[in-house]
Amino acid sequence: MGSNLIDALFVFMLAAFIGFEVIRHVSPLLHTPLMSLTNALDAIAVVGAIVLVGERKSQFATVLGVIAIVAATSNVVGGFVITDRMLKMFKTSRAIKK
Amino acid sequence: MTEFAGSQHIIEIIYLIASALFILSLKWMSSPATARHGIWAGEIGMVLAIGGTLLRHGIVDWKWIIIALVLGTGIGIPLGMVQMTAVPQRTALSHAFGALCVTLVGTAEFYLRTPNVPKFMMSVLSMEVILGGLTFTGSLMAAGKLQEILPQRPITYKGQNLVNFLLFAGAVGSSVYLVLHPEARQLFPLVIGISLIFGVLLVIPIGGADMPTVISLLNSYAGLSAAAMGFVLDSKLLIIAGALDGSSGLILSVIMSKAMNRSFTNVLFGAFGQVQASAAGGQEAKPVRSATPEEAAAILEAANKVVIVPGYGMAVAQAQHKVRELYDVLTKKGVEVRFAIHPVAGRMPGHMNVLLAEADIPYDRLIEMEEINGDFPQTDVALIIGANDVTNPAARSDQSSPIFGMPILDVDKAHTVMVIKRSMNPGFAGIDNPLYYFDRTLMLFGDAKQFVGGIVRELGGGH
Fold this sequence. Notes:
The complex is a heterodimer. Chain A is an all-alpha fold. Chain A is 82% helix and 0% strand. Chain A has one domain. Chain A contains five helices and no strands. The longest helix of chain A is centred in the last third of the chain and has 31 residues, at 59-89. Chain B has two domains: 61-271, no CATH class; 293-458, 3-Layer(aba) Sandwich (Rossmann fold). By secondary structure, chain B is an alpha/beta fold. Chains A and B meet through helix 1, helix 2, helix 3, helix 4 and helix 5 of A and helix 1, helix 2, helix 3, helix 4 and helix 8 of B.
């Protein structure tokens, strides 16, 4: 447990730094799609809910888990769909003249 | 046990690949040229992660998982197809959904593990549900304000900060007690209840103009609560995704508060609106010059360089397509037209860029504030459509102004300034804008969509 915890903290620290470095370079042009994309990725929390429901630990857990899967899945699907729609709209002058 | 361990390793490797894809996904978002690869990477990562999870040995109940996945997809598709003008409230709503998921899983985990919850586990679990709970209701409030179901005006009362502080302290205090005495399970609903109320009260005093910062901050909280959930479930995939989302939200909030010359605490506890209301009184009936669409069209036609400054008013009037027609007709006549984008124009980071891109305006014409500010002295006409505070020269000169120190677009340096505005009514933001009384400023009174349409007709364009 102890070493797992430390490992997890290391992972968190490194991921946060990578996040800062990568996202600092995102053009302000794309801030809205960036937010909807991170939203979709964040909904990876759905895996926690899937385990909760799948392992059928208690009825209470299953009910909460099902609602959680619905909420997170709608973020995954909606987030990717709208990010894709937004990014399709960004065109250069040359692309539009064609 | 060994065969389980084998499949467990495969799942971990799938998670590892998914994590790498998530990082690549964000990296590719740095430029419009590669951004769509980013979506692919994200989608593949997500499918791998969900597929890998379904392989887990302990999964026995498929029925409910499949029903929930299908239902979620059914809700997600319409949420992905909303109009571009509704993107800010859609984003707020999805922060709420993400936080809801995290809070529910956290709650279920608590009741499955209690009373044997190690101290560290209980601490991260509390963090997960506190952040998740306040993000859930806070984001719902933000979505309600953006959808105009709730008043956009800041709602403030005496002792607000004290109440908020006490609530937060109450939630943290109860969690600390739970960490020390995990058997006191009756305290857990209290922690969640307080967090939910705190989220509502946190967003109530925040006005529309501060929404970009608040949405970014809620984005960050949603990420951090997911990372906390990763600690609870010992899932590195979740920790990584949560940390990425958390840092993304944090960077955006910092950019947004800088663009408004505000500190975080100011945004959260400042209740901007009150100061503005008092500043709005007093000055009345100074003379302004106004112009008709015909006159505006003649001036634009004679110009060489035009900079259009869009703001939230353009989004409200749905004027972006008319603005594109204006861009087309002026470009055809050899006028150089560019757009000046202030970081906090609109209701969320990047809001104006998305609306203009939707109207088929090429993104190389959308110029950021730092880049375009030096060009205003050589600009013949600055045309402001539904933007106010971000063009207010009082931010540079008037120390008593509530927005003093905020970086603005230097439109007042252009040879002619034209402002499309419904009336001289300062609107709910309520800060008087000296720009409107300048000699070089022409006020174009009317609805943004109709007025721009009128100019386009005069110039012989449009349909």
